[in-house]
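Before relying on records like the one below, remember that each one covers exactly one chain. Contacts with other chains, cofactors or solvent are not represented anywhere in the record.
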Amino acid sequence: MSLQGRTGEHGSASHWCALATTVLPAVCAFVLPFDALHDLAIRSGIRTQPAWPWPIAVDVTIAQSTVAGLSLSRATTTAPALAAAGWTVAALQIA
């Protein structure tokens, strides 16, 4: 997709195929854990109404850790250790 972005081929079939095969798994990867985390929140005693933001908070935290790790790894020469720490935190949140 990076090469397509540089050549301006955004209307090609391969561009739309790459976009679809990126977006569809991402949506599934959000929906399935969302349902499981929502159910976990309810089983943990959180009422149904305030239980829906909990899975979003978990997913946003994972995404934030990933973005922070990537941006820190490019920011300075000492960042690889910080990036590794960010990836470790993200992995622990997933587990």
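The first helix runs from residue 2 to 7.
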